[in-house]
Design brief:
Blueprint lengths: L10 E2 L19 E3 L5 E4 L4 E10 L5 E11 L4 E11 L3 E9 L16 E9 L2 E8 H4 L3 E8 L1 E3 L4 E9 L10 E6 L2 E7 L5 E6 L7 E11 L2 E12 L2 E7 L3 E2 L4 E10 L10 E7 L5 E8 L5 E7 L7 E9 L2 E9 L7 E7 L9 E10 L9 E9 L3 E3 L3 E4 L5 E7 L14 E10 L5 E10 L5 E6 L8 E9 L8 E7 L2 E6 L5 E7 L5 E11 L4 E10 L4 E6 L3 E3 L3 E9 L9 E8 L2 E9 L5 E7 L6 E8 L8 E8 L4 E7 L12 E7 L18 H4 L6 H7 L2 H4 L11 H4 L3 H13 L7 E5 L2 H29 L9 H6 L13 E5 L7 E6 L12 E6 L4
Parallel strand pairs: 11-17, 19-25, 42-48
Antiparallel strand pairs: 1-6, 2-4, 3-4, 4-7, 5-6, 5-8, 8-9, 10-12, 10-51, 12-15, 13-14, 13-16, 16-17, 18-20, 20-23, 21-22, 21-24, 24-25, 26-27, 27-31, 28-29, 28-30, 28-32, 32-33, 34-35, 35-38, 36-37, 36-39, 39-40, 41-43, 43-46, 44-45, 44-47, 47-48, 49-50, 52-53, 53-54
């Protein structure tokens, strides 16, 4: 707290024998009354506090009298007192009483320290008197500055913070104040607060150094000031992808390494930057280190000849660029390329326990000739709680390299994985050709008992008494989408729905107003007649609530999505409640919106997606009136920056030793040519029979956030399908399923200059109320038995003298259900603000058995 101004007369030396007034506040007399809700304090110097007493004259004639104010500690020590004489001829006046008070010794600018003190007032005019007490903390006006924005910022990029400035006494917005952001002594942003107390500060010119920087926000105006500080983490966000021409090498071969490094989140090349490439063998020995510069495309490359004698096993290739390190492993071992492959075909995607799997096999040499007359041995293993080898089957391939095997599936699996189609039979395939050469390969048979599996979950935070949306999915045993029709049954109501080819449906459901559980049953049936039913429950929260949701989970840059907001039991009422919406990508604020709820507590806004929003976009909705966690939603925004690569060889085949010419063309999605760096690997296709290599790894690495990469998903609903699918309906389904399972990290910091003070005030309030509890217990122990006339334990407590909290308010008294301790009573103090149910109430329970 800051104190200013000159010392006024009327201040008195505190009396050592003074006792505080204990009793109910008396704010009204026959001659005048005090509006205690407008009682306030302000500071005017390091040793002066002005207490303002707003009074109304009720008598017809003018009044004269004395106003006296005292300042007390919570343990009833008088710190300062003062009085003034007044004359009141107007109907209303503000009496200002000065107090000598060393605020610096009491905590200076730490507003939380004000909760140590109670202000007593007594106003006399003839025989008319009013008196009472208030917390100095609750009546001292101060600007409240709240700042919300990015917790982390990429080096070299800008970010935005939302500031909300209000009067700490009545929460009214402060308009026209200058709000500035400082990094050390350097000004990095400035804005004026609008009529809602809002200001958006676009922070630019942050330093290039990685690390934590303190960002200080200062609000100033003619009538006040406020300040808050928050740390901001500056990160250099880069990703490096390491690729090699093949996944496995023999001693004596050459490893061709290529790295691609892009800045995050812009995906621009990290050009002309030093990068260090290292190679460690299977025992961790560092064999190679080379530093070079990336080219204009962010690419660096090296070749590594392998010795003929070396440590075989998993080798590690590392790329170091600043504080970022990427790692890739390769296998280095003596191996022989397979001469032929075995392809397995199943007559069904999965099998039930006890069924027979009809398997077809085909095999050919890599030069195209079938492995005619080869002997194939199929060795199945049941993977359950334990592994059990089953009877092997041998069969000869015909002249076309084909064979069929009928394999009985075990009739019993003890693992619960069989319920979800995760139980398996592993097949070890050993094929021996006519020359006696053998190759080993494997295949897997999936086993499950359910042909149709249904799941359902809310897509966003549930709001009581509102329409909430459930995401319903239908799959087969393999987790692949199945089109099905179904019904949702809840509370005597039925809702029909169809999941469609994507196996996903959004279903709106009217949620009861009462808090508790929303229980519902989902019945579904597919086109083949498979049926299933499953019961679900979700929590309906109590009290004020807010939810944000989008009409889609997947969209392209340039498209418009509808953002819906639903609120209930807002403290200031539903209609006109202001909701803040902040949008984050990679922890950086990319947009801010504000919207007002209608009388139903709902609002919609159209959000046009720009390039800054591409990727995993997080939406956070909150209100200045609501405490607690924010409501979140997320969606995936496609940037449509894809490049198309076309490879064309001038001939279909070549003889060994001939030169081959391959034309490479790169275009964008519109077909226009693009200058690009292209990496081409040319290896024997037999290498990929030893280890699979999939295309598209660059997009997975650079475009998908780690949260999406790690989200549970399978088949058509995997994170990879967000990029590989061509059909937007399938991508929408994949995004919706993945995002309902995703714990989206919060992208913001939320700080204000009242938070720490409020916590300190709550702690001091608890101590003071505990002291009052001790006093009440002592009274009851002295009485020992019920007083005459006391009908119940609660009634006896009500008969106790001076039963008021430290701020002069009567305790709320209520009976507590008997839990075996006899009659119990709960006493509740309204707390510092003297308003029951406002959040700072303090309660304790007394049992008659204690006395």
């Amino acid at each position: 707290m800051l104190l200013h101004g000159a010392l006024l007369g009327g201040c008195e030396t505190p009396r050592s024998d003074a006792q505080p007034y204990r009793g109910s506040d008396i704010t009204r007399s026959a001659k005048f009354e005090l509006d205690e809700t407008q009682l306030s304090a302000r500071s005017e110097g390091p040793t002066l506090t002005i207490i303002r007493l707003p009074i109304w004259r009720r008598a017809m004639q003018p009044l004269a009298g004395t106003a006296k104010v005292g300042l007390w500690t919570l343990d009833d020590q008088l710190v300062a007192e003062s009085s003034i004489d007044f004359q009141l001829s107007d109907w209303r006046a503000d009496l200002e009483v000065p107090l000598i008070f060393n605020a610096d010794a009491a905590g200076g600018q730490d507003r939380g320290e004000l909760s140590r003190y109670v202000v007593s007032y007594e106003i006399n005019s003839g025989t008319a008197t009013i008196m009472g007490r208030r917390s100095l903390y609750s009546i001292t006006a101060q600007w409240q500055l709240r700042v919300v924005g990015s917790e982390t910022v990429a080096v070299g990029s800008d970010t935005r913070f939302r500031a909300v400035l209000s009067d700490g006494h009545d929460q009214s917005p402060i308009e026209g104040a200058t709000i500035q952001a400082y990094l050390g002594a350097r000004l990095v942003a400035s804005a004026l607060s609008d009529d809602q107390g809002l200001a958006f500060l676009d922070v630019r010119g942050l330093p290039e150094e990685v690390g934590t920087q303190p960002l200080r926000f200062v609000a100033e105006g003619p009538e006040g000031a406020a300040e808050v500080e928050t740390p901001v983490q500056l990160e250099r966000r880069r990703k490096t992808l390491i690729t090699t021409d093949k996944p496995i090498y023999k001693p004596g071969q050459t490893v061709h390494v290529r790295t691609l490094t892009l800045e995050q989140p812009s995906l621009l090349p990290t050009a002309n930057t030093d990068i260090t490439l290292e190679v460690a063998d299977a025992k961790g020995n560092l064999l190679f280190r080379q530093t070079q510069q990336t080219d204009a495309f962010g690419v660096a490359a090296m070749t590594l000849p392998l010795a003929t004698e070396l440590n075989q096993g998993q080798w590690e290739i590392r790329a170091r660029l600043g504080d970022w390190t990427a790692v890739k492993t390769i296998r280095v071992e003596t191996y022989s390329l397979p001469k032929f492959t075995v392809e397995t075909r199943f007559d069904a995607a999965y099998y039930h326990p006890g069924e027979t799997a009809h398997l077809s096999f085909s095999s050919s040499y890599f030069f195209g000739k079938p492995v005619a007359g080869g002997l194939l041995r199929v060795s199945p293993t049941q993977v359950d709680v334990s592994r059990q080898e089953l009877q092997a089957i041998e069969v000869a391939l015909d002249e076309e390299g084909l064979a069929r095997v009928d394999l009985p599936v075990p009739s019993f699996f003890s693992s619960p994985q069989v319920e979800t189609g995760q139980a398996v039979l592993e097949l070890l395939l050993e094929l021996t050709d006519g020359t006696g050469h053998s190759e080993l390969s494997s295949a897997t048979i999936r086993v499950g008992v359910n042909d149709l599996i249904v799941s359902a979950a809310p897509i966003a935070a549930v709001v009581p008494g509102a329409v909430n949306t459930l995401l319903v999915t239908t799959t087969d045993t393999l987790g692949l989408p199945v089109e099905a029709s179904g019904k949702i049954l809840f509370g005597g109501n039925t809702i029909d729905f169809v999941t469609g080819p994507t196996g996903v449906a959004r279903v709106d459901i009217d949620t009861p107003q009462a808090a508790g559980w929303l229980s519902y049953t989902v019945n579904v049936q597919d086109a083949l007649g498979h049926r299933t039913s499953r019961a679900f429950s979700t929590v309906i929260p109590s009290g004020p609530s807010l939810s944000v949701r989008t009409d889609r989970a997947f969209a392209h840059v340039g498209e418009t999505v509808i953002v819906g907001l639903v609120g209930r039991e807002m403290p200031g009422g539903l209609e006109g409640a202001r909701i803040h919406l902040d949008l984050f990508r990679d922890g950086r604020t990319v947009a801010n919106r504000d919207v007002l709820l209608d009388r139903q507590g709902e609002a919609e806004l159209e959000l046009v997606l720009d390039d800054e929003m591409g990727g995993l976009l997080s939406l956070e909705a909150y209100s200045d009136e609501l405490q607690g966690p924010r409501s979140q939603a997320a969606m995936f925004v496609e940037r449509d920056r894809n490049l198309l690569v076309d490879l064309h060889a001038e001939r279909a085949s070549y003889r060994p030793g001939e030169d081959a010419r391959i034309e490479v063309q790169v275009t964008n999605v519109d077909g226009a040519p693009v200058v690009a760096a292209v990496g081409v690997s040319i290896v024997d296709e037999a290498v990929f029979a030893l280890q699979d290599v999939r295309p598209g790894v660059e997009r997975l690495t650079f475009e998908l956030a780690e949260q999406l990469m790690n989200a549970p998903g399978a088949g058509a609903w995997s994170a990879e399908s967000l990029l590989s699918e061509r059909d937007d309906a399938n991508r929408e389904a994949a995004a919706a399923v993945l995002l309902t399972q995703l714990d989206v990290p919060r992208g913001s910091v939320d700080v204000d200059n009242y938070g720490k003070a409020a916590q300190a005030a709550r702690e001091r309030s608890a101590v003071a109320t505990a002291r009052e509890l001790t006093r009440v217990i002592q009274w009851l122990q002295e009485l020992g038995v019920r007083q005459d006339g006391a009908r119940t334990f609660a009634h006896q407590i009500m008969l106790l003298p001076d039963l008021y909290d430290p701020w002069g308010q009567p305790y709320a008294i209520e009976n507590v259900p008997d839990a075996g301790w006899g009659e119990q009573v709960r006493l509740t103090s309204p707390g510092l603000d003297e308003r029951l149910g406002s959040g700072d109430d303090l309660s304790f329970v007394l049992s008659e058995a204690q006395f």
